[in-house]
Amino acid sequence: MMIASANIPGERETLIEIYGDQRTNFLIAIDGVSEDDARRAAAVGELTLGGLVKHLTIMEQYWITTVTEADPDAEFDVEAAADAYRLTDDESFADWVDAYRKQAQLTDEFIATVADLDALIPIPTAPWAPVRQHHTVRRILLHLFRETAHHSGHADLIREAIDGQSTTATMARDAIRSFERG
Fold first, then answer.
1. CA pair distance 156, 26, nearest whole angstrom
2. 4 confidence band (pLDDT: 50, 70, 90)
3. Which single residue of 21, 22, 82, 121 could bond 148 by disulfide (Cβ 3.0 to 4.6 Å)?
4. How far is CA 99 from the centre of its chain?
5. Angular region, 164: left φ>0, alpha ψ -120 to 50, beta rest
6. pTM of the model
7. What whole-number distance in Å separates Cα of residue 65 and Cα of residue 59?
């Protein structure tokens, strides 16, 4: 049986959908968190929910800029990344959540409109990657997806340590409520 291709989403729509799913998982993990809890680390390690939302926002901004302002001589600014995983005293969790949501919209717009997913982009060198590499836009986007999924898992564990809430349990509860209303 042949399926009409008009009913199948294209690559860009699929990329936006899958990335949206990853972001939703992350946002569920941080939903309703207080400013104090956003700065609390789990029992082990220094990661916090506030630090993770800040990092994911900065990471999306960084990689979209890397593509849109491709610089064959770029170097990763290690000093600028020093506080990328923690909220400073003059930053608020709520502001970073808002920034994350806004960046998500900008990234989705970028995915929908970038001219060529196969375009090769020079990747900034860094102490851990001193030789210049080139990656396709598609590979950079897949890196963003992986990074978001990775940190969604961290967020879920931290949230569970804070108040016992689990992304999976929340999603299951919401699905059951939706089914019962439906």
1. 8
2. low
3. 22
4. 12
5. left
6. 0.88
7. 10
